[in-house]
Amino acid sequence: MKIPACRLADLPRGEACRLDSDPPIAVFHTEDGEVYAIDDTCTHQDASLSDGWLEGCEVECPLHASKFDLRTGGVDSPPAKRPVRTHQVLVEDGMVYVLPSPTPCAAVHRAEGRA
Amino acid sequence: MKTVAVVGASLAGLSAARSLREQGYDGRLVLIGGEPHRPYDRPPLSKEFLAGEIDEDALALEAEGEDLAAVWELGVRAVGLDTGSWAEHHVRLADGRSVRAHGIVIATGAAARTLPASERLDGVHVLRTLDDARALRADLARGGRLVVVGGGFIGAEVASTARRLGLDVTVVEAAPTPLAGPLGTQMGSLVSRLHADHGVRLLCGTGVRALAGTGRVEAVVLDDGRRLGADTVVVGVGARPGTDWLAGSGLDLDDGVRCDAAGRTNIPGIVAVGDCAAWYEPAVGAHRRVEHWTGARERPAAAVAALLSGGRGVPEPPRPPYFWSDQYGSRIQFAGYAAEADSVTVEEGAAADRSFLAVYRSAGRPVAVLGLNQTRLFTRWRRRLATAEARTAG
């Protein structure tokens, strides 16, 4: 599945937008011009990371200051302990698309099913 | 440095220990904590934990499998500090032992202020530690009437949680308006309307004369003679820095350990972080004790850099103080220095809708920002403030 997010020109550097997918996905355009997509909901408490503080390749949750690495989804700073999922981004003809990852839970279930 | 001792094992102490390892310190690391618990997160103690929505495991600050290669001394308080030459200091522990260290990070936090007679009556609580929260949670489960003494953030969060649990709640605030210190009178008044919105009584402008009861608390007696019947009382009247153990150490103490803008104390090899530390704040030209989670999380990196460089390193200035509070389902966020402002204006939304963004200015220059249910806009303004401040400091 390839979800169109927005036109790259409509997403200035340092800004983020939110896709109302299930679960929601946040797309970030960094100051360096890279585009990343991660799950929008902080793993600590219900807050939207697209509302957060973007610095370099890191976003800080607007609510409780957990930090996530946009490249890996890893937690750089508590109180969050679990990573967020990352998603592949494609830019084609000036349009930003997101290729959502399969959910980790589903992947685990499938693996168990095969075993 | 062969040994660094971090005294205090809460967020500031843990952040300092992490920063030490991240910044390449590979010597002996000793973490000393007065409480028996591993480092835990305090903000949920007045909210989700108090409401019984999350358990103690959810409070843990350490990641699963995290290993700082540290010696943990938990459940033993530091009772004294003998400062020697730059190369060696001794932390004296309550059990008679002593930890010799070449570098010291002081992170002993702050202790809740109490009212006279608080200790001799059951049902009277402060809220600072996990053990405090466990005890209060058990009493709130009895239901009935709760009186919260102090309309600050802790008091307001406890009131909000207790109201949600169905208790009859009254908040007593000595000042004419709650939150006037952190938010200023005008905004403090606007934000504290959340109490009335949710059926919590707010009595302002009167102090507490006494707590009445035999065995268990029965009432709070106000300065104006009114008597409020109470089954449980929470005292949220601020905190004092945990620096008693540093008396006679030679450290400069004045409402906290006085430090420069990177956490360095007046004694080489010793830095201080978190609620017990009064760092010099270039933005206001004075020493301030900043009792916020974010400061305890972020500032230790600068202090550790200063410690490891032997005082030569010049870390970047910290971001402006930031804190949040969740009350009655509303999200309150604040950054900057309200006391510096000569004006404050609501720029987005409306106070009547309980959703607004207000900007504090000094001579036309933004110095602080307050958001009530305005997360996205708040983040942008917080960023602008930090950038403006970095420019000023630079």
Gross geometry of chain A:
globular
Poorly predicted runs of chain A: 105-115
As a percent range, the share of strand residues of chain A is 35-45%
- Structural category of chain B is alpha/beta
Q: So how many helices of chain A?
A: 1
Strand content of chain B: 25-35%
Rough outline of chain B: globular
Strand order, largest beta sheet of chain B:
3-2-1-7-19
- Number of beta-strand segments of chain A: 10
Structural class of chain A: mainly beta
**Overall helicity of chain B:** 10-25%
What is the helical fraction of chain A, as a range of percent?
A: under 10%
Distance between the termini of chain A: 27 Å
Integer-rounded radius of gyration of chain B: 22 Å
Number of strands of chain B: 26
State mean pLDDT of chain A (0 to 100 scale).
Answer: 86
| Total count of helical runs of at least 4 residues of chain B | 8
Q: Could you describe the largest sheet of chain A, including whether it forms a barrel?
A: 6 strands, antiparallel
Task: Provide keyphrases for this structure.
heterodimer, A: 115 residues, mainly beta, six-stranded antiparallel beta sheet, four-stranded antiparallel beta sheet, 1 helix, disordered C terminus, B: 394 residues, alpha/beta, five-stranded parallel beta sheet
Question: What features would you describe in this structure?
Answer:
The complex is a heterodimer of chains A (115) and B (394). Chain A is mainly beta and 115 residues long. Chain A has one helix at 104-114, and strands at 3-7, 15-19, 25-29, 35-39, 53-55, 58-60, 67-69, 75-77, 86-92, 95-99. In chain A, the strands form 2 sheets. A 6-stranded antiparallel beta sheet of chain A has the order 1-10-9-4-3-2, with no helix packed on it. Chain A is globular, with a radius of gyration of 14 Å. Chain A starts with a strand and ends with a helix. Chain B is of the alpha/beta class. In chain B, a hairpin with a 4-residue loop joins strand 5 (89-93) and strand 6 (98-101). The longest helix of chain B is centred in the C-terminal third of the chain and has 19 residues, at 375-393. The interface between A and B is medium-sized, with 14 and 20 residues.
